[in-house]
Design goal:
Structural class: alpha+beta
Oligomer: single chain
Strand content: 5-15%
Number of strands: 7
Number of helices: 7
Largest sheet: 3 strands, antiparallel
Order of helices and strands: EHEEHEEHHHEHEH
Shape: globular
Strand order of the largest sheet: 6-1-7
Length: about 200
């Protein structure tokens, strides 16, 4: 089975936030919580880069390694998902994640912030695919419908790529060769423990 991954090509991202909006609308993510966000590095200076960030569904997910109740689990296609029914909201995953993906749904005192939430790669959760219970907790399950995550589909410049790791890496390599350089496949080495060679 294919290993599903994300890659943000920082040379193409224009900080339009279409990926953020698509995710919030598709999954009815509550106000104040973002499963995906656009971060600008070196804002206003030469070499400024914008990067769309969310859970990268890491090969050796640090969030899963530190979870005391083992609520994170991997799927056959390499996704790292989260069972909200098991989560106790301790926040260890938030501190362990190099991408800041797991988030509390509310601000408040410890114990009152709720259970963690994160990007699902539009793959839903542990409930039956397409069920009302799955949608209520995790949003739509586009993967079960044979679709890619909506954030990547809505990216107007195709900076945000999602899909089979080999195909995503090939697209990035071809872009880098055409441009004559690559800005670096941001987050790729950290998440997947491998290089994208130009």
């Amino acid at each position: 089975m294919a290993r599903l991954t994300f890659l943000c090509d920082a040379d193409r991202c224009i900080e339009c936030n279409a990926c953020v909006t698509a995710c919030k609308n598709e999954h009815e993510v509550p106000w104040g919580l973002n499963r995906r966000r656009v971060v600008t590095i070196g804002d206003g200076r030469p070499g400024e880069r914008s990067i769309s960030m969310a859970c990268m569904h890491c090969t050796d997910a640090p969030c899963a390694a530190v979870c005391p109740v083992s609520c994170f689990y991997g799927t056959a296609d390499g996704l790292v998902l989260h069972d909200k029914d098991l989560c106790i909201g301790c926040g260890y995953c938030f501190y362990a994640c190099p991408f800041g993906a797991p988030q509390y749904p509310r601000v408040g005192n410890f114990g009152g912030r709720g259970k963690m939430d994160k990007c699902t790669y539009c793959a839903g959760g542990p409930q039956q695919d397409g069920s009302a219970a799955e949608y209520a907790q995790y949003g739509s399950n586009r993967i079960a419908e044979g679709k890619l995550p909506l954030c990547a589909e809505m990216c107007s410049t195709k900076a945000l790529l999602a899909g089979d790791q080999e195909i995503v890496a090939m697209i990035y390599r071809e872009r880098s060769q055409r441009r004559g350089f690559g800005s670096g496949a941001w987050g790729w080495r950290t998440a997947y423990r491998t290089e994208v060679r130009a």
